[in-house]
Target: N-acetyltransferase domain-containing protein
Amino acid sequence: MQPGDLPQVLTVQALAYADLMLESEATLASRLALSPQTCWVAMDAGTAGPTEAAIAGYLFTHPWRLAAPPPLDTVLDALPDTPDCWYVHDMALAPRTRGAGVAGQLYAAALSAAQSLGLRASALVAVQQSQGFWARFGYRATADVSPQIAAKLAGYGDGAVFMTREL
Model:
């Protein structure tokens, strides 16, 4: 992903989430700036070049602390000095690409980058009943979360679930 991709990323975000979970360009740009090697876009097949290409989906991830997921729609100023997990912040696909394997390709590319950083665990907050989707990538719901994590989950909407996996 490149900074110039963000306008199209915001379009995909709006298509995927409607008005329910939209995050600001500043929030997403902060993650890209802090960890460009773990943020990815998928381009529509058959597009000719960067000026004509359409973004089919995106994945924002970054090193973080397992016990402290960042609140939704929060600009990050820095990564932790001692990250202990790969945090999967957001993946969204344009409706036209669902079922085409785009999610798996994005995840595989980012996972390879995360593993090269030496991180041994991953975490995410599953929203909009997406736990089954993330379970296919090896994530499991954390049944007993700390009060700090529970408070952050409340900001992600009803039914948000903290999930983790080993890498």
Observations:
- The CA atoms of residues 39 and 60 lie 5 Å apart.
- Helices lie at 6-17, 25-34, 102-116, 131-135, 147-154.
- The radius of gyration is 15 Å.
- Residues 3-166 form a domain with the Aminopeptidase fold (CATH 3.40.630.30).
